[in-house]
Amino acid sequence: MLTLHPMKEKDLPQVAAIEASIFSQPWSEKGFLDALHQKAAFYLVAAEEEKILGYCGFYQSFDEADITNVAVRESERGRGMARAMLTELLKEGKNRGVAHFTLEVRVSNAPAIHLYEKLGFTSAGIRKNFYDCPKEDAMIMWRHEALD
């Protein structure tokens, strides 16, 4: 059964392995460890038993949060896991007073862009040559919350 929980240190070897298998310039295990110790950061994982299937997280600055990582094991894609994780991440941000969420995504990553749009994100522009390996532009996306 799929569960979502805050990322813990014991999750980091699997998280770093997923990161390295997906991204051309991956965060290291130490990078994730440093993030876990930041009060302004929140990261969660999707797991089945002890197997980490995906993760996502943000850094908060006042009422804004930058979603820095969203990843799902290639073998587990298409199950709605990214949507479930992001829905939980947005809820956690709102509980922490976040009114504005932002992220960057490769302009060629149509499945991710489609998901973000379904979750209420809109394009706010392009960062030229934002990504390396291969060099590619990033679409900047924002979602604005109405806080109670």
UniProtKB/TrEMBL annotation:
<dbReference type="InterPro" id="IPR000182">
    <property type="entry name" value="GNAT_dom"/>
</dbReference>
<dbReference type="GO" id="GO:0005737">
    <property type="term" value="C:cytoplasm"/>
</dbReference>
<comment type="function">
    <text>Acetylates the N-terminal alanine of ribosomal protein bS18.</text>
</comment>
<comment type="similarity">
    <text>Belongs to the acetyltransferase family. RimI subfamily.</text>
</comment>
<dbReference type="InterPro" id="IPR006464">
    <property type="entry name" value="AcTrfase_RimI/Ard1"/>
</dbReference>
<dbReference type="GO" id="GO:0008999">
    <property type="term" value="F:protein-N-terminal-alanine acetyltransferase activity"/>
</dbReference>
<keyword id="KW-0012">Acyltransferase</keyword>
<keyword id="KW-0689">Ribosomal protein</keyword>
<feature type="domain" description="N-acetyltransferase">
    <location>
        <begin position="2"/>
        <end position="140"/>
    </location>
</feature>
<keyword id="KW-0808">Transferase</keyword>
<keyword id="KW-0963">Cytoplasm</keyword>
<protein>
    <recommendedName>
        <fullName>[Ribosomal protein bS18]-alanine N-acetyltransferase</fullName>
        <ecNumber>2.3.1.266</ecNumber>
    </recommendedName>
</protein>
<dbReference type="InterPro" id="IPR016181">
    <property type="entry name" value="Acyl_CoA_acyltransferase"/>
</dbReference>
<dbReference type="GO" id="GO:0005840">
    <property type="term" value="C:ribosome"/>
</dbReference>
<dbReference type="Pfam" id="PF00583">
    <property type="entry name" value="Acetyltransf_1"/>
</dbReference>
<keyword id="KW-0687">Ribonucleoprotein</keyword>
<dbReference type="InterPro" id="IPR050680">
    <property type="entry name" value="YpeA/RimI_acetyltransf"/>
</dbReference>
